């Protein structure tokens, strides 16, 4: 089963903390959370030097500016996600699910051509299976693996209306469930999830000891 959460707009600390709570408490079922941002934020990859007032992610990757993008967190273990030790395949299959979801909205995106030129900003750096639309990168993802489970985070940089976001989220969940060869079920975050996330946000993602650690 793929558990699917369509979340409301939140601040950067809570968005990162909720993904971490889901990751830490992952059971047998894979979990996909689609989420938004309540205003503009910047996140950076785990190993990046923080040269801005940015929130450090648990995952890797580069600096990402958030505001109107639609973001996702995907958690799975080796039992449900057979590509757990293959980062390229993980991105390829997730991005294919997103590509199909965007096509259902009328956006015909394409996979990027790889470049060796690496920038600081994620949307200026192209990797295999990133998505392009009208000559611009609109999707990249980053990953953290712990043992036999992964957390993948990414953002679709298109400004979608509410109805389009709802359709995109449902299509993404459906497509990802097909890749997992399972069904999906929409669920809500529990009070326990949110209480744990609030504590982690305050102790970690709002704290310079985490955000400025490098």
From TrEMBL:
- The segment(s) forming the BPL/LPL catalytic domain are 11-169
Domain of life, per UniProt, equals Bacteria
Quote one Gene Ontology molecular function term: ligase activity
- Coiled coil: which residue ranges? none
Q: Does the keyword Ligase apply?
A: yes
User: Does the UniProt entry include the keyword Ligase?
Assistant: yes
What SUPFAM superfamilies does the record point to? Class II aaRS and biotin synthetases
Pfam families referenced in this protein's UniProt entry, alphabetically: LplA-B_cat
Q: Which InterPro entries match?
A: aa-tRNA-synth_II/BPL/LPL, BPL_LPL_catalytic, Octanoyltrans_LipM/LipL
Q: What keywords does the record list, in alphabetical order?
A: Ligase
Checking PANTHER family in the record gives:
OCTANOYL-[GCVH]:PROTEIN N-OCTANOYLTRANSFERASE (PTHR43679:SF2), OCTANOYLTRANSFERASE LIPM-RELATED (PTHR43679)
Q: What is this protein called?
A: Lipoate-protein ligase A-like protein
Give the organism, scientific name: Endomicrobium proavitum
Q: What is the lineage of its organism?
A: Bacteria, Pseudomonadati, Elusimicrobiota, Endomicrobiia, Endomicrobiales
């Amino acid at each position: 089963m793929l558990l699917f959460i369509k979340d409301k707009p939140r601040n950067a600390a809570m968005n990162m903390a909720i993904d971490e709570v889901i990751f830490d408490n992952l059971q047998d079922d894979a979990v996909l959370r689609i989420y938004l941002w309540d205003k503009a934020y910047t996140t950076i990859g785990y190993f990046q030097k923080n040269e801005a007032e940015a929130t450090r992610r648990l995952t890797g990757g580069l600096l990402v500016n958030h505001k109107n993008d639609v973001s996702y967190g995907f958690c799975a273990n080796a039992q449900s996600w057979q590509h757990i030790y293959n980062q390229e395949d993980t991105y390829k299959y997730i991005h294919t699910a997103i590509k199909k979801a965007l096509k259902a909205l009328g956006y015909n995106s394409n996979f990027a051509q790889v470049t060796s030129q690496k920038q600081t900003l994620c949307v200026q750096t192209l990797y295999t299976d990133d998505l392009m639309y009208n000559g611009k990168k609109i999707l990249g993802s980053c990953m953290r693996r712990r043992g036999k489970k992964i957390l993948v985070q990414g953002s679709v940089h298109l400004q979608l209306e509410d109805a389009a976001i709802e359709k995109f989220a449902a299509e993404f969940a459906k497509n990802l469930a097909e890749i997992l060869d399972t069904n999906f079920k929409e669920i809500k975050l529990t009070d326990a999830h949110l209480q744990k996330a609030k504590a982690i946000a305050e102790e970690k993602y709002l704290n310079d000891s985490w955000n400025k650690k490098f």
